[in-house]
Amino acid sequence: MSNLLELTKNIEQWAIDRKLHTADPIKQYDKLIEEFGELMKGINKNDMPMIKDSIGDMYVVMTIMSMQTDNSMVKLLEDGGVETVRTKHNTFDYIFYLSDLGDFLSDRISFIIPQIYGLNLEMAKTCAEYEISFVDCVELAYNEIKDRKGEMRDGKFVKSEDLH
For 113-157, how does the pLDDT look when each residue is reduced to its tens digit (9 = 90+)? Predict the structure, then answer.
């Protein structure tokens, strides 16, 4: 098992290798909303593999978005990271943080650490609620993308198998 700091550094390097770290964070936000929809679908269906996949994917997206806005997830983790919690997630808190994040990005405000931290906290709550490991979710997502090839199109990374 990897640790979260190591996985985050790997995700950041993956993003740099694909030139995602300088792309438009609004495009990453679109992807974050998509992954959040998958998470809610997994929660509604009590689908553990979908919940784990979505949480890991959301973390990857937020790590890249943080790079695009000069907010390092590595720094956030070194400063305290996500605490272990034993409370249930709150869908309204997810939506609040996502909405706030969208407002900040559309206004070109680049300090997004409180929103990213809040979303990470809600994901940690979801993991605690379903008794799954947050780090395992991130590791699952990283292992899924680490060898992925593709190209940038209109500010978004498109997997090679989706290129037409």
Answer: 899 989 998 998 899 889 899 999 999 999 999 998 888 888 788
- What DSSP line would sit under the chain, residue for residue? ---HHHHHHHHHHHHHHTT-TTS-HHHHHHHHHHHHHHHHHHHHHT-HHHHHHHHHHHHHHHHHHHHHTT--HHHHHHTT-PPP--S---HHHHHHHHHHHHHHHHTT----HHHHHHHHHHHHHHHHHTT--HHHHHHHHHHHHTT--EEEETTEEEEGGG--
Contact at 8 Å (CB) between 164 and 29? no
CA atoms within 13 A on the CB side of 141: 26
For 24-80, how does the pLDDT look when each residue is reduced to its tens digit (9 = 90+)?
Answer: 899 899 999 999 999 999 999 999 999 999 999 999 999 999 889 887 777 666 666
- Contact (CB, 8 A) for 35 and 144: no
Q: Are strands 150-153 and 156-159 parallel, antiparallel or unpaired?
A: antiparallel
Please list the residues that pair with 153 across neighbouring strands.
156
Q: Give the whole-angstrom CA distance, residue 80 versus residue 9.
A: 16
